[in-house]
Amino acid sequence: MIHPWLQETWQRLVGLGARLPHALLFVGPEGLGKRDLADALAARLLCAAPGADGHACGHCAACQLRLSGNHPDLLPVVPEADAASGKEAGDGDDAGEGEGGSGKKKSSQIRIEQIRDLQEALAVTGHQSSRRVIVVDPAEAMNAFTANALLKLLEEPPEGCVFLLVSSAPRRLLPTIRSRCQQWSFSRPAGEAVAQWLSAPEAPPADLLALTGGMPLAAQRLARNGSDALLRRFVKDLAQLPAGDPLKLAGQWESWLKSKEALAAGFDMPQLVEWMQRWVTDLASLRLGGRVRFFPGEDGVIAALAQRTSVAAVTNCYNELARIRRVAQHPLNARLMLEDMLLRYARAVTGTRR
Q1: Which residues in 20-45 are b (16+ Cβ under 10 Å) and which e?
Q2: By the number of CB atoms within 10 A of the CB, which of 66, 163, 229, 289 ranks highest?
Q3: Quick check: 41 and 13 in contact, CB under 8 A?
Q4: Domains located in the chain, CATH noted
Q5: What is the pTM of this model?
Q6: What is the pLDDT of residues 259-293, one digit of tens each?
């Protein structure tokens, strides 16, 4: 599926025809549909008779194999956790750590063994034709050893191979990886294409779209997970915090993160800290004379808070949240992290040293 805001890019890709390079890197924020675009291009490249619109026909033998998940010449390289959960990690879903039947956590990284398996698979000719397509998502999930192993394939690609790399954090890729790929950059969609999509019945609420910075698919994922109710509680708690006890709220949030509601929605510490960062970003923006971007429905609450703080205080708070976010995936003590975060926020908006 090609989303409205990606149609122009799709037509450009189709127009390349035989001039399509052997390696492409799709980069941009999560939630734009980069992986969907890569999958559509992979389908086209493997299809025996693509349609006039450039899409795979969906009927030939190659398409039937692909649709059944058994095409031997389509080689996805994704973290074990994402393969186990069916996630498309590079484009709107957080890379989780699923568990197998043994209870062992699945890796959220692309392991070097996967690249070695890929090397073996590419050492023989294609099964359906000479064309083979490798989709690496998210490309930044490779460590230096894994990336160097892939680099060897990019430097001397087997005949007929096309590599499609998807990344939301291209700066984490080796410069040599980036230099071997033709880069296609995507930015936040705007204009008529998004307006058309927002009119569809399955479009997410406007507050979730704003929270994700205008990333349509990220907002849609939040809506499907029931995150709108979580967002309402988050806003209510922060609005009441200046007059409340941050330590008490930390205890409540610790229980909240373990609740069935939060677990069902995939709501975890990293996402909570990210929401805090975006709340403080709006606070800083308003304090500096800008506008509320992520929580437009709460501009009155944020405006009142902005009057109680200073630019220095809210900037320091944001910087501390950035530090906390770097370790939020695996906190040593979740309760202490929540207390630290909320105490720092309370100091910023009350001007006290609580």
Answers
A1: bebbbbbbbbbbbbbbbbbbbbbbbb
A2: 163
A3: yes
A4: 4-187 (3.40.50.300), 225-350 (1.20.272)
A5: 0.79
A6: 999 999 989 999 999 999 999 999 999 999 999 99
